[in-house]
Design brief:
2 domains, three-stranded antiparallel sheet, OsmC/Ohrsf, OsmC/Ohr_hydroprdx_reductase, OsmC/Ohr_fam
Length: 143
Amino acid sequence: MAISKVKVNGKVNDGFRTEIGCSHNFIIDQPKAMGGNDEGANPMEIFLASLPACICAIGRIIANQKRLIVRSIDVDVEGSIDKDFLLGKTEDGRAGFTEIVTNVKIDADMTQEEKEAFVEEIERRCPIADNIVAQSTLKTIVN
């Protein structure tokens, strides 16, 4: 087993504008209606966006490894979430997405069965999908 660490950093000062430090820095914010400046996607969108990005990347890795001609992979993701819970309006439910649905379109000369097997392998090897369906240890250190 070859364990690697991936590190990112987030810093917020006033408001909701959060500067994310990683290989390609970016901003996460809230829409103006929620008190932000709308300078970037919100955390829920960023979380969901990591899934199609990973599916596409792992799909390309598998296609390259197996020498498959895959012209494109197009992934739509939709998450259902109880915003009343995350806003503190209720104690019933949970903060996370209750359901995440992906729709994966593969443009390749494959049968439907081959496309399904390809996507099954992608999901099995995708770290983002794995973190959604399996439980990772979360440790928080407060300084």
